[in-house]
Amino acid sequence: VPTTLAGHGTHVAGLVGANVFSGLGFKGTCKNCGIAMARIAYGICSPSTGQVQTTFTFATAAKGITWLVDSGTQVINMSLGNSLLDPADYCPTHTKNVWCVAMAYATDRDVTLVGASGNWRIRLQFPAADSRVVAVGGYDESIAFWDESPGSYTFCPYGTNQECGSNFTNSN
pTM (2 decimals)? Predict the structure, then answer.
């Protein structure tokens, strides 16, 4: 069964390393970069939808970060997050969490960590909220968080701030 909701990291890597001469109309941000990938997600069967969907654990995130650091990677993109690890001060108060340990391992070796800001329209999510991580996400013209439903929850899929901001897409 094909895994659904997969491939986001590959898409981001394509944006970073896109070849302007491909004829596809895209120009990456790092012309001479090599790209290494660590798949941290795995498929789980969702009986309610009849699909296989992807998920990850703190341990798989940590293992991917550690493997990339040990492989000589200079920048690690974490286009993922976990609201269980919010707020921004999670790692300083949970120093033994495997994901936090892996991020410390990376920064101790001068690896730059980049994180997706998350899909909330009111604050950064973990890991982008961590002070060691460069947060990347969508902003509007006034440099405020991107908001798909200003002043209301009308266009928010869950009727709250969740999934209504920076990276939210209604294009499925």
Answer: 0.76
